[in-house]
Every structure is written in C-alpha cells, then in structure tokens.
Amino acid sequence: DAGVTQSPTHLIKTRxxxxxxxxxxxxxxxxxxxxxxxxxxxxxxxxQYYEEEERQRGNFPDRFxxxxxPNYSSELNVNALLLGDSALYLCASSxxxxxxxxxxxGPGTRLTVT
Amino acid sequence: GESVGLHLPTLSxxxxxxxxxxxxxxxxxSDYFIWYKQExxxxxxxxxxxxxxxxxxxxxxxTVLLNKTVKHLSLQIAATQPGDSAVYFCAxxxxxxxxxxxxxxxxxxxxx
Lengths: 114, 112
Prior knowledge:
heterodimer, A: mainly beta, Immunoglobulin-like, four-stranded antiparallel beta sheet, 0% helix, globular, B: mainly beta, six-stranded mixed beta sheet, 10 strands, disordered N terminus
C-alpha cells in the first residue's frame, strides 16, 4: 500500500519564476493538505482540497494556488517566486469521511529559490 | 539527509532513559492534539494523538499527557532508543477547521 508520494524531490528556481509541485495521496484518501516548512520551524498550513475544491486556506498570498484532480491527486502552484518561498513543501492526505485530523505526510519537495 | 531544524531546542538523553518533550498550545478551542516525529530528509510521521476529552493516552513506548487548564501537552518516550533521535512536533486542530497548527519542534538526541 503506497503512502503519500510527492514529486519532484528537489527543485531549484529563480526569483520571479513559477513552480508546480505534485502529490499523490495515500490509497483510500480523498483529502489533500499542503504545508510549508521553513528550515528550523514547524509546518505551516497553506490550504486543503476535498472533492476538487479548496476547503480551507491558511495565511498565504494568492501567489499560492492549488488544484485537486478526480483521482484525488493534487498540485501546488506558486507564482512570482520570492527568496522567502524557499522551504520544504509537504503534502498530507486524509480520509474526509473519517477523522480528518489523521493526516499522513509525504516526504516533501525541497524548493530552493535563488 | 539535510537537517530539519538547525536552531531548535534540543533534548539530549542517554539510551535507555525516558524522554519527556513538552509543548504549549495556543488555541483553547483546539480539541485534538497530535505528536509527529520528523527524521532528517523525511516528512512528519504520526506518533500518537489525543482528544480534548482525555488527559492521558498510551501507545507503544509513548504516552501523551494533556493539561487543558494550562494548555500544555507532553510526550513521554520510555526506554529511549537511538532510532528515536529526530525532531518532534506537537500539532493542534479543532472541530470547526481542517488544518493542523504545529508547534516549533524539539530535537531529541539519543546518546549511546
């Protein structure tokens, strides 16, 4: 049973560019949440997708957007990259029909903006 | 793998001793609390959770204590092993929301 997978593992972008990160949830899960983890800090909630719609959003600018596909996989898009966007981006999946707090995390995508 | 946290509070513990990691949470409306373990280069791994209607819950070698009066959470690890070396985060959630709010993390170093 595959857990949460994310791609790519590492990514280097230049300021002003755009990036797309991808996540496949754990088998049987239909809800995907995205978090940003700066070095030395805990993860911060970006947004959550359920039934292909954004269900809740954290305190992140509109440069951060997402999408969920019919197969429950999800993408995180960040436009006009800033140096401060350098972080580990984590995807977590859960079962929206049960205790949604039980979120399972993927290994993350390390984004470096130069 | 790269370091998860370079400037986190660090708890050094001798192998075989018990570890206690503390966390203060912020939202009195939170009704669900989780401890995650994060090893270098990996995503957070679920350890144990507790609902707000409980004050103690035990798992395999781990115990979580919840004190709602002072908004404090702790994780006790019995007979700490080298594989327990990691960064530990507490997280809180509440029924009206779907997000988890994470604390700042504590690095645990197990000395052989």
